Amino acid sequence: MGRVGRALVWHELLERTRDRWVLVISVLFALLASGVGLYGRSAEAEVAKLTGPSLVTLASLLVPLVALVLSHDAIVGERERNTLGLLLSLPVGRFEVVAAKLLGRSLALCAAVALGLGAAMLVSDPAGVRTLLALMGPTLLLGLAFLSIGLLISTVTRRQVSAASIVVVVWFSLVFFYDLGVLGLLVITDGGLSQSAVSALVVGNPAGLYRVQMMHTFAGPEVLKDLGLSTGLPGRATTWLLWGSWLLVPAVISGALLSRSKVA
Question: What's the number of domains the chain is made of?
């Protein structure tokens, strides 16, 4: 990445850390995570086992929202301000612009996740800290996947308000309604859908993959059988392939679309 690209990364990081919506959601995440940590610290041993799943649920709701808010105006915001042409006239490639915006906003997302989970670590006991450390990496992967999705939405839309509306729909669809859709499909097929197909549908969604992976980590593989999923998690290589696809494919498509765009 050249000098202009590095400057753009730094600019994106500074601008996103000043975004009031990102700050509000990040502080809310930090407060709620701290509350869960305090609850786990004061609870009985059996109740404390709920700390991990509770934090997973919290992170699966708020981290995708932070990521989508961070990325929804990455390209369309420049287009609406009529600065996209000026940016692309600089000695920087269009793929480099996409990479710089993704990297700068990814650093801002990492800071937001570190703020939330770090605040919870400060009030947790040693067992809670270990739980939070195990949660850190997969939570960052979840956020980066949604950040890449938000960047793609920003590239294909022409107005910032349209991008904001679409990311809200995407957030509700993937975080809330996706699992209900899988359940509805099971009802429609009268249980005829195979376990492997159900598992593929669940882990095909980044939020679902995150939840299943963390449930497997905190409660063991038997918890998936209790939920009726006899096939469980895919192998390590397949899991990394799924995460890599969610991280890279939307970003690569964004770069390709921007490269073909006639907007200057």
Answer: 1
